[in-house]
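User: Some background: our group keeps a shared notebook of sequences we're curious about, and every so often someone picks one and asks for a predicted structure to add to the entry. Today it's my turn. The entry only has the sequence so far, pasted here. Could you supply the structure so I can complete it?
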Amino acid sequence: MAVTINETSWPQLQRLRFIERQLLWEREVTAPMLVGAFGIARPEAQEAINTYCEFAPENVRPYSPSDRSYKPTQGFKPKLIPDSADSLITISRLSTPANPDFFSVPVLNRSTAPGALATILAGIENRSRIDAVYVSMQNPEGSYRSITPCAIISASNRLHVRAYCWERNAYRDFVLSRFRGALTLKESGDELPVDHAWDESLSVRLVVNDALTAAQQRLVTDDFDLEQLEAFEIRKALIGYFLQANLLPTSESELNEAKTHPERFPVLAVSNSGDSVISYAF
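Assistant: Of course. Here's the predicted structure to add to the notebook entry:
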């Protein structure tokens, strides 16, 4: 008889959610993964996997000794976790303690077409084409796109899909929430061109805006611990998202504003040569 949610305990439900998250994002799940995450014995971990396979048999391929893991089917669709960026959150066995003196502000969450994330991740895993309708501010009615997804980018509270667009013959980033309707996964053996912006990295440093007063510069340096912050490598394709997420100048006009109104942009991002990195932003 099929397993139902009402038949599972809270600890078991958390394990099933963890299994589903692993299948969605890691593209596999094993008993040792559950042992490490929940501190349970291996037989309990295997029992949880068996329970999930019974609960959602359409989501798990038959176990193959050569894989040494359970893998998702191409038609995998989450049933216990959000099909969105929220599913990135680690499944915890314990609730976050409530503190009556701690407050947070609500954050907007973007909706995602059912099954879109799972289909995109399956496309990345199998290097398959995906046919879909995509909308944008410039084209809110939407247009047909055929893409080969390559990576998922999480930035500014939304997921983006790095993909080769066959209509534009170029790599583009697509906002996951802007796909409409069903996404069709198609087998293909396409050879993709090199994605230089993705493969190449830039060494970036954060510096205080020297248009600030000396006292303001000391304050900002202490706020962000800039003296201890070392240069770091970041993919060129991600620099725009990095600047946007950290409220740093992303254009020449904002860079000019940083000179006239430095309090608006107290921190700037520069390359190791000392030049601004905004030329890589979007």
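Suggested note for the entry: Residues 21 and 88 are 8 Å apart (CA to CA). DSSP finds eight helices and eight strands in the chain.
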